[in-house]
Each structure stands twice: as C-alpha cells, then as structure tokens.
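tool_call: predict_structure(chain=1)
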Amino acid sequence: MTLHILNVGFDDTDSPKGMCTTFLAYKIVDLLKKHDTEFLDFPKLIRFNPNIPWKTRGNGAVSLQIRTKNTSKIKDQIKHLVKKYSDIKNGANPGLVFYEDEIPKQFAKFSKLALWQLINRNHAKKFATENNIEFFYQGNGQGLVGAIGAIGYDFKDHTLELLSYRKNSKFGKDRKLSAKSVKTMQEKTLPYTFNSFDNKKDRVLITPHGPDPVFYGVRGENVDALLRATKILKTDEKLAGHMIFKSNQGTGDHLKNEFNTTNIKPYASGKITGIVSDKPQTVKGGHVFFSVLSNGFELQCAVYKPTGITLVASSLIKGDEVCIGGGIRKASKNHPRILNVEFIHVITLEKNLINSNPICKKCDKKMKSKGKNQGYQCIKCGKKSANKIILEIPRNIKKQLYIPNVSAHRHLSRPLQRIGRTNKESKFDKSASWFCVYEK
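tool_result:
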C-alpha cells in the first residue's frame, strides 16, 4: 500500500469555559502513535492575530504533518476526536482541514494574512473549495481560518513549547506549582527558555488560569532545554503527559506588516514608522497618548500603564522618529481609531530645546526678569543681560527598542533575549522525547 503525506489543521475547539486545541492535538497524536504513522515534524502551534475580538486566550491553531498508508481511516478517527473534544455547547466553532501531498505556496499567503488581518470565515470556506482542501466544521466555521492558516504557515523563525497536560479528574481545579522551582528553572535554563517567571512582579508565567487541561507550558529554543525544565519544576499533582510543539511564539511575526492608509483597519496588527507629531498626554490611570505622522497620515497611539513603558512614551517629544508596533483598536463614539502599542523603537531623538532666562557668568545663578521688554538682571551682583538663552535639556530615553514588562507580553511578543536570534532549522527527532504519556 502506498504511503501518503497528510496535512491536518484544526482550530477553535475550545471556549472560555473549557477544553483546549492543543489538548485535542495531544489526544490525536496519542491515537496516531498507536497506528503505523510517521510524523514528519513537530506538531505546530501557530498563534494568529492577537487582536481578533472573538478569540479565546492565545488565538492558537494546530497542524500535523504525517505519512501514512490509510488516510481515509485516519481522517475519520481525527474527525471523531474533534467532535469529542470540542466545547461546542459553550461557543466553540471548530474547523478541521485535510490536505494530501506538499503544501502549495498560496497557502502561506493566506496564513500570513491571518497573522495580522481579520479574515472572514466565508473567505476561508471559499479558499478551501478553490484549493481542493477537504474541510469539516461545526458552528459558524470560524475555526477554518486558523485550520487553513496552520497547515500553510511558512516559518522564518520558530520557537518550541512543551505543554504539560492534567489528568481529567483535575480539570478546573487550582494548579499548585512551586513558584520557587519556576524561578530556579528559569535561572538554570536561560537563555534557552523564555518568559517563564517575572522577577519584577514575582509572578509565575507558565501556568494558565482557566479550566483548560494544560497544567503548564514552557517556551524555549530546543528540546533539551524544555525536557530539562520539566525535571526542575515541582508539583504535587500527577500529570497525564506532555507534548512539544513547534511555534511562532516569541517571534514578533504579527508586527512585521507596515501600516499605510489602505490597511489600517479595525483589529489589524502591524507597525508604523514616522515622526511624533504632538506632545504625549498622560491621562487618568497613567496611560499615555501621542500621535505619529507617517507618509501624510496621522495615527494616534496608546501606551497603557500595565506595559511598563509609559515613561518612555511620555518622554517622547515632537520631531522624534519612532517605529511603533501594535494592534488597531476600533473607533467608537467616544474614541477615535487608536494603535494599542506593543513596542516603541526610538530611531532618532530631536534636541529638546527651551528658552530660558540667562545665567550670570560671575555668580552662576539664573537672572530674573526686570519686566516686559526690560531685560534680565542678576539679583546677587547686578549684572544685566538683554535676551533669553536657548538651553538643551538632556533626554532621558535612548535610541533603542523598548518592549513591555514580561507580564504584559503577548504569546507572539519577541522577548529581549530573542532580539537578533532566528531559528531557521527545525531538528526533529523522531524519538518519543517530544511526546510522552506518563505512567498511569
């Protein structure tokens, strides 16, 4: 019997009340490993546009690429698991796609758009039909967007994530993970893991807070670091198993699109390079607003207090050249269209010049005004001067990249330790190290 390459993609199987698309992937892989199935790469966890309003948690879709003899039997089994592990009664809209053979280039274009745009589910259905993609969906079919995007994603950089799953009896119960062990794990595995613990806030960042089956997720650069991390982490709970995903998390890929007058649409993600066109204003709550002028259009930007970069934003002045990345917030009756800022890259700094009363050279004191158009005089020695002088105020920000506090990072945010780092090659070890069901 001939072996066939089968690409499988699925999305939107979870809801805010439970289940998880990666847990479904874990169950599918567990099933496939019991059959004569060859895995050609890690399962892929692709995070799409984080500004989509109806997303659940991290807006992640999953794909698998396998080689198998009996594709029809495997498709039926996967379809059964998607039905079983989708939380449809609480609003999940699962989409499942199958594509045999190598992925065509137009799939990557669709996937790239899903990274920063809002894609209509009807567009996804049309794309699937036109490209002979076998698809299945429940609910409104919104999950087809992520499912197609996940099989077509073209990695220019990637990270890995080890997701550890709970036993069914523990779903919805409090997670008890030693914060000290997470801090130790981060110290011992840096720089090959990232965003595990926020030292400033003394906060664990690897455990979700909802009722889903994930116990923790460790993000990193290679399999060895992730497996080492699991040995350092300490919990009293007996876990079901783990699986390692290849992902676009930590790559910043959603912010590579350059905004212009035609693509600044609600919920879009991207960046704008231009000149600060007004004085930043700090409002109640500590949030900072300013505008950037680029190629003839002006865009208002908002930097929110939890990001930890409001001081940077408030220190900008008119004329500074910046590159700002983030997502477009839809305009409302009370607020215009705004870019919610995810990073500030200061490219050039304008000189901060002010007019000041002259300084007495003898006494080194600032002179006082004698009255309108009457010049200035030193009150100590009596020396006079006719005009004000121009002073340059030192800037308290530098020409560099500023990103939010680690607690305010999104899944796709590129952490500082990954700046300049690119993982192009994916060394997939076909041994069982990337997938493990623990002893029962």
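agent: The two ends are 35 Å apart (CA to CA). Proceeding to next step.
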